[in-house]
Amino acid sequence: RAKSAGGNRFEFADAEADARAITRHGLTTALPAALERGEFFIEYQPLVHLGDGSVHGAEALVRWCHPQHGVLGPDRFIPLAENTGLIVPLGRWVLQEAVRQARFWQTRHSDGGPLRINVNLSPTQLHHPRLVADTVDVLERSGLEPGALCLEVTESALIGADDDLLKPLRQLAEMGVDIALDDFGTGYSNLANLRRLPVSVLKLDRSFTQGMQQHPADPVDLKIVEGIVSLAHSLELAVTVEGVETGAQAQQLRDLGCDTAQGWYYARPGAPDRIHSLVLADAV
Ligand code: C2E
Ligand code: MG
Ligand code: MG
Ligand code: MG
């Protein structure tokens, strides 16, 4: 049908799909060497207390500095690394690097600072038998206390999780590592199910924050966020909001009782020094 309606457009769309598939294939095969050559780097985005805007910690966000394509965001290559299993060594590198960085920030602040580091885990990493051992090893070698690390797991990765999957997360939580439920509200998890999960933080997905954009904000969105926050707090979970882009959103979310926030309004992801100067700015 598309062909008879407009041959050119069809061929164009087709060629585009081909190009995407070729790039995907190229990126996939280039991944292992990229890790060996050190083409990955981490940007850090601050997490702030909504109350006073002080820095609570930072999330590590991986990027790939590709020799031909330039800097690629994680959405371009994490799914490929997931499919090929390269996510395991890549994820281990991110964890090690981010934890080392966090320890470095702490030692540079005279008070040892409560600065925390958040690292994303993908489902394959979650299923990997060495998750606990690797994490313990990374923490011990860096000297970072487990309580300063927060591992972010998406809600969808834990949907229908059985005890075998939850056991390593429970072990980590017992050691003091925080587990955050990332992109919360986008999955289909049963809220009552939250009680079963060893999580201590809910990261409310950016889509909720976007709902606060309008003036006045959508009253239904407000009610939903209000309900989630009150449920989370009654389960003793902290609530972080993602994607705060304006002061009005920050105000709204603060009024709704959210605890911490992350977004362009505060800072875009950036080089590690940026976090250091933000923390120092707080201290004076
Ligand atoms: P995420 O964990 O939900 O991270 C938040 C994403 O929102 C980041 O995108 C961040 O740059 C972006 N963001 C932050 N503030 C704002 C804002 O105010 N407005 C908007 N529009 N966006 C904002 P990024 O860096 O592209 O990362 C995308 C996803 O890739 C992450 O989502 C995470 O799921 C995944 N990812 C990143 N690093 C890693 C990693 O080391 N390992 C694994 N497994 N996944 C990672
Ligand atoms: Mg995250
Ligand atoms: Mg998130
Ligand atoms: Mg998100």
Automatic annotation (TrEMBL):
**Domain EAL stretches:** 24-283
Top-level taxonomic group: Bacteria
> What is the name listed in the Swiss-Prot or TrEMBL entry for this protein?
Bifunctional diguanylate cyclase/phosphodiesterase
The organism's taxonomy opens as: Bacteria, Bacillati, Actinomycetota, Actinomycetes, Kitasatosporales
Q: Which residues of the full protein are shown?
A: 438 to 721 of 721
